[in-house]
Amino acid sequence: MSQINTQHNTIELLKTLIAFDTTSRESNLGMIEYMRDHLQSLGIAARLSYDADRRKANLFATIGDPQARGIVLCGHTDVVPVDGQAWDTDPFVAHIADGRIYGRGAVDMKGFIAASLASLPDFLAGPLRQPLHLGFTYDEEIGCIGVRTLIEDLQQAGIKPAGCFVGEPTRMQVMTGHKGMRVTRCRVHGLEAHSSMAPEAVNAIEYAGRMIERIRQVAGRIRTEGPFDPAYKIAHTTLQTGIIHGGTAANIVPRDCEFVFDCRTLPQNQSDELIEQIEAYADELRAEMRKISAQADISFETIANAAPLDTEDDAPITYLGRALARNNLVGRVSFATDAGWLQQAGIPCVVVGPGDIEVAHKPNEFIEISQLEECLGFIGRLRERMAQEVLLP
Predict the structure, then answer these.
(1) pTM of the entire predicted model
(2) What tens-digit pLDDT sequence spans the chain (393 residues)?
(3) Would residue 78 show up in a list of annotated catalytic residues for this protein?
């Protein structure tokens, strides 16, 4: 297929994919089933792996022998909400202007998915020396959840890919690492009373405040002492509290308070160790609280957890990505992706995809058509190489 036709098909597919409201709180089955049917029309079978409620699914498909060690093009289907954002156009209707395609998910990351789908006829045109896999996941935006279901499905099916390109927006520069993400909810349960009797109560907000201050102190120590990795824009692990709720009235000592904090770890920092430090301080506070009320408590719940990515700059998948991108530069990004869990499952990964993360999650999100062209060039060179040799054993 000519490059012009492939570019046209990419744009048309992207317009269709944007029209599916795959905000993480919604089902993604409409988009998944559309892609499944599209693949079926090309003679490509797809396997779906569902969440517990069967409202969402991953899609995995292969050109070639699915049991052979192939190369994966991976992207997530979910998008972030548009609530409260001032869009100039309908976020779920693609708008093309000034060499850009606007719409929710255009850059993060339906553009990459559209380019992958549009390139398939070229992969089908001749034999490949190793398989091409497609892996499209759900719920990446809320903690890289779907990819873990996908990994379980592949392991059960005995599918062991040789490498993976995760197409998050990097302006087609190869990224060999990213931070991990751990989001934790802390619930503080105290003892309520009339505010005039405060010494006989356990103020949940005040104890939550002490917990938050300890989290801030841990973050400050890391900011000063490291470890550091200058390849990241923020060169150290970070912690911050983003949400807090508690209390019912000014004249009632609050019984309950909960807050959510976020930990973004360098690959050499383990989030488990940081959470253990915070939980140890909670043990001290809990003992103090229970001197007044035996029912007082502080509990923790992990609500999102994405593994960090740490691929060697001289790894075969990195060399291949740099050759296909025609760019010897490598970097690292602070945002989390599905690549971390894929790498932990034994699938070598780098992150490389079209567009700029700076416009993701914002109103009037867009992807430049020139970036889609670069992505199609990357995928086209992958096809040419895969027709000639086994790229990753």
Answers:
(1) 0.92
(2) 556 789 999 999 999 999 999 999 999 999 999 999 999 999 999 999 999 999 999 999 999 998 899 999 999 999 999 999 999 999 999 999 999 999 999 999 999 999 999 999 999 998 999 999 999 999 999 999 999 999 999 999 999 999 999 999 999 999 999 999 999 999 999 999 999 999 999 999 999 999 999 999 999 999 999 999 999 989 999 999 999 999 999 999 999 999 999 999 999 888 999 999 999 999 999 999 999 999 999 999 999 999 999 999 999 999 999 999 999 899 999 899 999 999 999 999 999 999 999 999 999 999 999 999 999 999 999 999 999 999 998
(3) yes
- Exactly one of 21, 78, 139, 229 is catalytic; name it: 78
- Looking from the CA of 157 toward its CB, the CA atoms found within 13 Å total 21
- Catalytic annotation on 225? no
Among the listed residues 140, 141, 365, 374, the single catalytic one is 140
Q: Which residues of 197-232 are buried (b: 16+ CB within 10 A; e: fewer)?
A: eeeebbbbbbbbbbbbebbeebbeebeeeeeebeeb
State the DSSP string of 34-61: HHHHHHHHTT--EEEEE-TTSS-EEEEE
